[in-house]
Amino acid sequence: METINVNLVGVGGQGILLTADILARTAAEAGLDVKKSEIHGMSQRGGSVSSQVRIGESVLSPIIPGGEADILVAFDEVEAIRAFPSVRPTGKALVDRRYLVPVTVSSGQTPAPADPSATLEKIFAGRLYRLDSVKLAEEAGNRRTANMAIAGALSTLLPFPCEAWLAAMRGRIPEKLVGANIEAFKAGRAAVEAAV
Questions:
Q1: Model pTM?
Q2: Which of 37, 111, 124, 154 shows the greatest Cβ crowding within 10 Å of its Cβ?
Q3: What's the rounded mean pLDDT across residues 79-103?
């Protein structure tokens, strides 16, 4: 199996690190070698967060070489645009429909990006999967499980059985919250399957 490189990006508080943990556990459940790295400097204050997960028969480094991500998972449109250079020319992007105003914009340091949705359609032409994770999570019963809706959507792009994802979730999420998270996961998975 070729190494699969997944770059997850977003803003602090969106559940990026938990999603990356579940992806890593899923790959391990499938018997593969996994390496994971994360950058979350100012994450508690709404700053950028990134986690890279590399999966394969033998993975030597947790860092994805520049321009080598097979899948970009963006929890926010602006972060997707910012992370575009990390994706290989044939790579795919799974992007949530959220647009969170970056601190640099709200503080007046930089102008707001013009039409991030159109920009994403242009730069990821034919390789873009969109998702409204908050809506799916609300419909599944708990808005706070939006990251698991994204994980469910991601599961359609990777070669792991659904049971491996669910086992990883049960092993990482507190028992009283597992049910709601699984419902959001299933909703995200179904949304992408219906769109393909």
A1: 0.92
A2: 154
A3: 90
